[in-house]
Amino acid sequence: MVTYHDAHILDVVGPLEVLTGAKLFLPQGTVPYDVHVVAQAAGPVRTTSGLTIEADQSFAEAAEDARPIDTLIVAGGHGTAQAIEDRELLDFVAAAAGRADRVVSICTGAMILAELGLLDGRRATTHWWWCPILTKRYPRVSIEPDAIFVRDGNIWTSAGVTAGMDLALALLEEDWGHDIALEVARYNVMYMMRPGGQAQFSASLLAQKANDGKIAETLAHILDHVGEDLTVTSLAARACMSERSFARKFKEEMGVTPAHYVEMARLQAARVALEQSTTPVDAIALRSGFGNAERMRRAFQRHLGVSATDYRDRFRLTARGPEALPT
């Protein structure tokens, strides 16, 4: 596991907890993975949270370690911008990737792989916020902005933060089989395969990107009034703009059409209602602005790959208390 100052702590410990957690379900004494955390120097490494992680080896020490590398994982985080200018880190990752069976990036760790050319001509993903940056800076990489994780040959890349745990679960399944991976997923209260992609989380987060005051106000209105009339005509009138100007400015600011964003906002509102209440699906569809359950079902299938009813059932299964965990 490659880390550096101001890496995101969950990018490091999240995947490692999933991978090493397999020991709970393997024969006593079995060590599923021999984990080594490497950094500029052995010892404490500060993360974005202010907490520190203890690196086992420096890059120099790890480079001299002759043992084979099964899986090389590169963490992401706010420190990635500095990491891609760290020649020692880049040299180590390049050399280690050349002798690793699998190369994995978590979140913005994909920027490091891309900087080395390891993603050229490949499909990849990263945190949704950074996808446009990765696309612009590394045009030879085929970015899949809505994927939770992407595997292209022996290179795996994940979306932001907790998506690294989803990717680790897939690695675990490949190494130790479906049953072990399922037990680890249940123990960590995770989906074995999370429905949908990054888009399911981004309605409120995406609203933070707006720089234009009128667009920002419109986004806030959409999020607070998902059940109301949110056509381009009504939204443009609210923003005191022509429909054409509003639609063009909205797309420039947000990267999606007004209609697409409205559906994202309504989907987000419906998800929260399904997760946190016993309100009938028909009523949730009406309150969320879908009009009827069938229209909401199609939206859930399109964005999340499951029906609204199945989504509620899956969430409840995952959100159970201690009875959901192995004894």
From TrEMBL:
SUPFAM superfamilies: Class I glutamine amidotransferase-like, Homeodomain-like
InterPro entries: Class_I_gatase-like (IPR029062), DJ-1/PfpI (IPR002818), Homeodomain-like_sf (IPR009057), HTH_AraC (IPR018060), INH-QAR (IPR052158)
Keywords of the record: Transcription, Transcription regulation
Domain HTH araC/xylS-type: 216-314
Span of the signal peptide: none
Molecular function terms from GO: DNA-binding transcription factor activity; sequence-specific DNA binding
Transmembrane stretches, start-end: none
Domain of life from the UniProt record: Bacteria
The keyword Heme is assigned to this record: no
Protein's UniProt name: GlxA family transcriptional regulator
Taxonomic lineage: Bacteria, Pseudomonadati, Pseudomonadota, Alphaproteobacteria, Sphingomonadales
